[in-house]
Amino acid sequence: MAEESAAQKNPENWISPQKILVILAHPDDPEFFCGATIARWTRQGHTVEYCLLTRGDKGVRDELIDRETLSRIREVEQKRAAEILGVSRVRFLNFEDGYLQPDLNARREVVSVIREVRPDVVVTSDPTNYFHREDRINHPDHRIAGQIVCEAVYPASGNPMYYPELLERGLSPHEIKELWLTLTAQPNMMIDVTETWDFKIAALKQHCSQIANIDEMERIQRLRHTPDSSDDNPRYVDSFRRIKFR
Ligand SMILES: [Zn+2]
Predict the structure, then answer these.
(1) pTM score
(2) Cα 23 to middle of ligand 1, angstroms
């Protein structure tokens, strides 16, 4: 029993501070998918950086705003949200929102970020999750970002034969220790994030361009407690598929 509660308290079982790189498609994805876990990690002394593949420049259905203006707004929102979660750096790649493709160019861009940051752990979205929940189709960028990142992690990032031009830029091969997939239908890892759920909500509130009704968003997020807990005494978990490389 004592062992079980230790595992629940420290399910990651990391014995030293980890460098964690979160690579996702859009501004607001880190907060919506796993913001409370990110807050948990930074509070535990791990370093978290973000890399967003797009600036979310099609994230509203509004003909009155142009994509460039929306990109700038979303970049600011993302940086504010990241700050609340304790994230140390946010970088953006310049892919167009909605048009992500798992091609060799996108893979090279992600390999180059992984080799530069040299993380222990990479977090991305599950590339196999086509139908997310019963009432929606997962955004294609979420799946495709996951595919690009998985294919960058293995085998390209650790193998000097891939993208030899990166060696000339000083970006030597790097192998990560763990890959965590968020937004997954096949979790093998649950993280109790009850203590940091408020940080997630505070960070989500920064994404004003994406949230029509902030109070309603907060109400829905608070209802997302585990079925075995209550509104008055909620428990929250984030689920992941965790791959530990040997
Ligand atoms: Zn998204």
Answers:
(1) 0.95
(2) 12
